[in-house]
TrEMBL record:
Keywords: Cell membrane, Membrane, Transmembrane, Transmembrane helix. The chain crosses the membrane at residues 21-42, 277-298, 325-355, 375-399, 420-440, 671-691, 726-746, 758-780. The lineage of its organism: Bacteria, Pseudomonadati, Bacteroidota, Cytophagia, Cytophagales. It is a multi-pass membrane protein. This is FtsX-like permease family protein. Residues 284-400, 674-785 form the ABC3 transporter permease C-terminal domain. Residues 20-231, 428-608 form the MacB-like periplasmic core domain. InterPro entries: ABC3_permease_C, MacB_PCD, Macrolide_Exporter_MacB. It is found in: Cell membrane. One of its GO terms (cellular component) is plasma membrane. GO terms for molecular function: transmembrane transporter activity. Pfam families: FtsX, MacB_PCD. It comes from the Bacteria.
Length: 794
C-alpha cells in the first residue's frame, strides 16, 4: 500500500513539473536556511557547556551603588572569593583571573607580543575543563613563575618542539617556566585566553577591599544553597567595606551568574557577549521561512483543486476511502519535503564554510552528523510534510464524486484560504524587510556618529614598560621631523577603551566630596592629536611644568554631574584621603573642560572623566597624513627600531579598533539581511506559481476580453489587481508588528537611530514593487497571447 502511495505521488510530481519545482525550490531554500540558522542558534546555546562542572560554576559580578548612579562590573576585589570559601562549606573552590594586558615574551633573541594573557590561581584546571597536550593539570600552575600556553601560542614560540620545561621572559625580564600546553580555548567560550601565568605573591595575597580588578569564579558543591550565599553579601559589606566606602555614600553588593548563562544574558560594561534576543530572532526567522515555504505548498495544492477534482471523484467512485485519499496526498507532501531535505543537506554542506565566514562561527562538518541535527531534520519533515500537507489532503479528499463527475463541481472555501495565506506570507516578508532596514540604519548610525574625536589616520602603539617613556621625547622629535606626521601624543589607554573608575575628592557645592570618576592620563599634545575641543578654559601646556601636579581637565559630563556653573578653578584631589586624614594627596584645579567624547563604544554611555597631565604614558597615538601612508609607516618603524632596538614594532589604526567594537552586530546584521531576502524570495516563488495558475484558469476570459477590444494594459491591471489588494491588506498587519518589535530592540542601545515614517512607507513601496515584478511576467504573457488559441475550442 505504501509503495503504491509513493509511486502515485512520484507520478503526480512528474506530471506537474512546474508546480513541483516551485514547491521543491521554495522548500529547499527554506529548509537550508532553517538548518543553517539552527546551527547558529545551537552554537550560541552551547557556550561554556563543554566544562564538565559547568552546572556548578558561577561568576560573581559587582554592583557599586553611588548616590547618583549604579555601576555594574564583572570584576571584584581579590579577597572576595577567598573569604567566601572560608565562610561557606558548600563553596568547594574558587579561581581568579587578573588581566596582564598585552605582554611581550622573549625566547632567546626572539620577541613575541601576546594578547589575552592572565594571571590566575592554580585551581583553574580543577574548576574549568581544558584538554592538556603537555604537562600535568594538577601541577601546572602550582609553583610561582609557571605559565601554561595554548596550542596556537606554543607552536608560535616553539614550532613542533616540546614546550614544557622551556623558559620565557617577559619584557620586564621576569622568567616563566612553561609547565603545560592546552588545546586552544573553544570559540564557544565567554572567556578566552592565550596564556595563563601563576599569580605572583603580591596578587595572590592581596587583601585590599578597595580595588575591583579581579574576575572571580566559584565552584559550588551539588545542591548548594545559592540564596544563602547571596543573603550573606550585605554582611560582607558591613564587615569589610563599610569603613572604606560608607563615608562616600557608596554601597556594594554582588550577584551570582551561572556560567552557562553569561554569554547570552550578561550585559555588563566592557563585555562583548551574545544576546538571547538574537537567538529568539533567528529561531523565529527559521520558523517563518519554513512556514512560508509550507504556505506555498498549501496555496498551490488548493489552487489546483479543480485539476485534482476528477481524480478524487473517480477514485471515490471506484471505492477509495477518504482515509486512503488523505494518506495519498500526505505522501505527496512528505515526498516533496524529503526531496527538499536531501537537497538542503547538500546545500548546507556546500555553504557551511561561507556561513562560518559570514557569521564568525567555527561550526564543523561533524555537527551535520550530530543527533540533534538529525533530529531537526526529522522535525522539519514532520512539520513541513504533515502540517503543510494536512489542509490540502483534507480539503481535496472531501470532494463529492457525484458533483465532480456531473461537471457541476465548484471548489469552495479554498479561495479565501489562499488569500489569507498570501496575506500572511507578505505580512511576514514585510515585517522582516522593515526590521532589516532599521537594523542596518542603526548599524550605520553607530558607525558614522560623531564620537567627539577624530579616529581617521591615527596609529596606536601600546607599550607598558619604562624604556619607551625614557626615550619618548627623542622618538617624538624624530617622528615630527617627517612632514607626513602631523602630531604625536600619549595617554594611559586607547581613546576608544578608557575603562576603570577611581575615587577622587572633588569640590562640590557642599565642600569636598568623594566620588568615582573615570581617570585617564594624557600629555599636552593629546587633545589636538585626537581632534578634541576645549569648550571652556585651556589645554595642558608644555611650558607649564606645574600642570603635572596642579591641573586637570574634565569633560562636560563631569561638569554636569557636579552641577558646576563655573568649573574653572574647582579643586580635585588626585587620590583618596586616608582615613586618618594624614598625608592627603596633592590637590589640582580644573583648568579646562573638554567637549564630551565617547570613551568606549556606543553601547556605553559617556561618563564623567578626569584627565591628568603626564609628559608620557603607556599608549602612543600618531596622527599621519593620508598621502604616502605606506612610506610613513616604514619611516615610523625605522625610527622605532633605531630608538627601541630591543622591542617589536607593532601598531594598529584607531578606526580598526572602532570597527571591531561593532563587528558582532554587523555580522548578525548580514545574517538577518540575507535570510530576510531569502524569505521574501520564497514568498515570491509562491506568488509566481499562484499567478501562473490563476492566469491559466482565466485564459479564456482574457481571450474574450481581447476580442471585445480589451488592451494589454487593461488585462495586466486586471490580473495584478487581486494580488495588489492582498499585499495592501498585509500593510496594516505588518507595520504595527515591525514597529513594536524594533522599538523594543532599539531600547537595548544607549544611542539609537529614529524610526522614521519613510522607512515604513519605503517598505510598503518595495513590497508592492516586488509583488508587481513577480506577477507581471505571467500577466504580460497572458495579455500578449493570441486570443484565437484560447478560444479555438469554444
Amino acid at each position: 500500500m505504501i509503495k503504491n502511495y509513493v509511486v502515485l505521488a512520484f507520478r503526480n510530481l512528474v506530471k506537474d513539473k512546474f508546480y513541483s519545482l516551485i514547491n521543491i525550490l521554495g522548500l529547499t531554500i527554506g529548509v537550508t536556511c532553517g538548518m543553517l540558522l539552527f546551527l547558529y542558534v545551537a552554537d550560541e546555546l552551547s557556550y561554556d557547556k563543554y566544562h564538565e562542572k559547568a552546572d556548578r560554576i558561577y561568576r560573581i559580578v559587582s554592583y557599586i551603588r553611588e548616590p547618583d548612579k549604579i555601576n555594574k562590573w564583572t570584576s571584584t576585589q581579590p579577597p572576595l572569593v577567598k573569604t567566601l570559601k572560608q565562610d561557606y562549606p558548600f563553596v568547594e573552590s574558587y579561581v581568579r583571573f587578573f588581566g596582564n594586558g598585552r605582554t611581550m615574551f622573549r625566547l632567546g633573541e626572539q620577541k613575541f607580543y601576546e594578547e589575552d594573557v592572565y594571571s590566575t590561581d592554580s585551581t583553574v584546571f580543577d574548576i574549568f575543563t581544558y584538554q592538556f597536550l603537555e604537562g600535568d593539570p594538577k601541577l601546572a600552575l602550582s609553583q610561582p613563575g609557571s605559565i601554561v600556553l595554548t596550542e596556537k601560542v606554543a607552536k608560535r614560540f616553539f614550532g613542533k618542539n616540546e614546550a614544557v620545561g622551556k623558559i620565557l621572559r617577559t619584557d620586564d625580564t621576569t622568567s616563566y617556566k612553561v609547565t603545560g600546553v592546552i588545546r586552544d580555548v573553544p570559540k564557544n567560550s565567554h572567556f578566552t585566553f592565550n596564556a595563563l601565568m601563576s599569580l605572583n605573591s603580591n596578587q595572590r595575597n592581596a587583601d585590599g577591599w578597595g580595588g575591583f580588578y579581579i574576575n572571580s569564579y566559584l565552584l559550588l558543591s551539588k545542591n548548594a544553597d545559592i540564596k544563602k550565599l547571596e543573603a550573606g553579601f550585605p554582611g560582607l559589606y558591613d564587615k569589610y567595606m563599610s569603613s572604606i566606602f560608607k563615608r562616600m555614600g557608596i554601597h556594594i553588593t554582588y550577584q551570582m551568574q551561572p556560567l552557562t548563562s553569561i554569554h547570552l544574558y550578561s550585559k555588563f560594561d566592557g563585555e562583548n557577549n551574545g544576546d538571547i534576543g538574537y537567538v529568539y530572532t533567528f529561531s523565529a526567522i527559521a520558523f517563518f521561512m519554513l512556514l512560508i515555504a509550507s504556505i506555498n505548498y498549501m496555496n498551490l495544492a488548493t489552487a489546483q483543486s479543480a485539476r485534482r477534482a476528477k481524480e478524487v471523484g473517480l477514485r471515490k467512485t471506484m471505492g477509495s476511502l477518504k482515509g486512503a485519499l488523505i494518506a495519498q496526498f500526505l505522501t505527496e507532501s512528505v515526498l516533496i519535503t524529503l526531496i527538499s531535505l536531501f537537497a538542503s543537506l547538500i546545500m548546507v554542506a556546500a555553504l557551511l564554510s561561507f556561513f562560518n565566514q559570514v557569521s564568525g562561527k567555527e561550526i564543523g562538518y561533524l555537527e551535520l552528523l550530530s543527533p540533534k541535527f538529525m533530529l531537526i531534520g526529522v522535525a522539519i519533515v514532520v512539520f513541513t510534510g504533515l502540517v503543510s500537507g494536512s489542509y490540502p489532503a483534507f480539503y481535496l479528499s472531501a470532494f463529492e464524486p457525484a458533483q465532480v463527475l456531473k461537471g457541476s463541481f465548484k471548489a469552495r472555501g479554498g479561495g479565501f484560504f489562499r488569500k489569507a495565506l498570501v496575506v500572511t506570507q507578505f505580512s511576514i516578508s514585510m515585517v522582516m524587510l522593515i526590521c532589516t532596514w532599521i537594523v542596518y540604519q542603526q548599524l550605520r548610525y553607530m558607525q558614522t556618529k560623531d564620537m567627539g574625536y577624530d579616529r581617521d589616520q591615527v596609529l596606536t602603539i601600546d607599550y607598558q614598560d619604562q624604556q619607551p617613556h625614557d626615550k619618548y621625547n627623542a622618538f617624538r622629535k624624530a617622528l615630527l621631523d617627517n612632514p607626513n606626521i602631523q602630531s604625536v601624543a600619549t595617554a594611559s589607554s586607547p581613546v576608544s577603551n578608557i575603562g576603570g573608575r577611581v575615587i577622587f575628592n572633588v569640590e562640590s557645592s557642599t565642600g569636598m566630596k568623594e566620588m568615582a570618576f573615570k581617570p585617564t592620563v594624557i600629555d599636552h599634545d593629546y587633545i589636538n592629536t585626537m581632534g578634541m575641543k576645549i569648550v571652556k578654559g585651556r589645554n595642558f601646556s608644555e611650558d607649564s611644568p606645574a600642570d603635572t601636579a596642579n591641573s586637570v581637565l574634565v569633560n562636560e559630563a563631569a561638569v554636569k554631574r557636579m552641577n558646576w556653573k563655573d568649573p574653572i578653578g574647582k579643586k580635585v584631589m588626585l587620590g583618596t584621603v586616608p582615613a586618618d586624614g594624614k598625608n592627603p594627596p596633592p590637590t589640582a584645579q580644573v583648568v579646562g573642560v573638554v567637549r564630551d567624547f565617547h570613551q568606549q563604544s556606543l553601547y556605553n554611555p559617556i561618563e564623567p572623566l578626569i584627565m591628568i597631565y603626564r609628559r608620557s604614558s603607556g599608549v602612543m597615538h600618531i596622527k599621519v597624513k593620508t598621502k604616502n601612508t605606506k612610506e610613513t609607516l616604514a619611516y615610523i618603524g625605522q625610527k622605532w627600531q633605531e630608538i627601541y632596538p630591543s622591542r617589536l614594532f607593532e601598531y594598529r589604526f584607531l578606526d580598526q579598533d572602532f570597527e571591531s567594537a561593532y563587528q558582532a552586530d554587523e555580522l548578525r546584521g548580514k545574517i538577518f539581511t540575507a535570510f530576510s531576502a531569502l524569505t521574501i524570495l520564497i514568498a515570491c516563488l509562491g506568488l509566481f506559481g499562484l499567478a501562473t495558475f490563476t492566469t491559466e484558469q482565466r485564459v479564456k476570459e482574457i481571450g474574450v476580453r481581447k476580442v471585445l477590444g480589451g488592451s494589454v494594459t487593461s488585462v495586466v491591471l486586471l490580473l495584478s489587481k487581486d494580488f495588489t489588494k492582498l499585499v495592501l491588506f498585509s500593510f496594516p498587519i505588518a507595520i504595527p508588528i515591525a514597529y513594536f518589535s524594533m522599538h523594543k530592540w532599539l531600547q537595548g542601545f544607549t544611542y539609537k537611530t529614529e524610526m522614521n515614517v519613510w522607512i515604513f512607507l519605503g517598505a510598503c513601496a518595495v513590497t508592492l514593487v516586488i509583488c508587481w515584478l513577480t506577477v507581471i511576467y505571467q500577466s504580460l504573457k497572458a495579455a500578449l497571447a493570441n486570443p484565437v488559441k484560447s478560444l479555438r475550442s469554444e
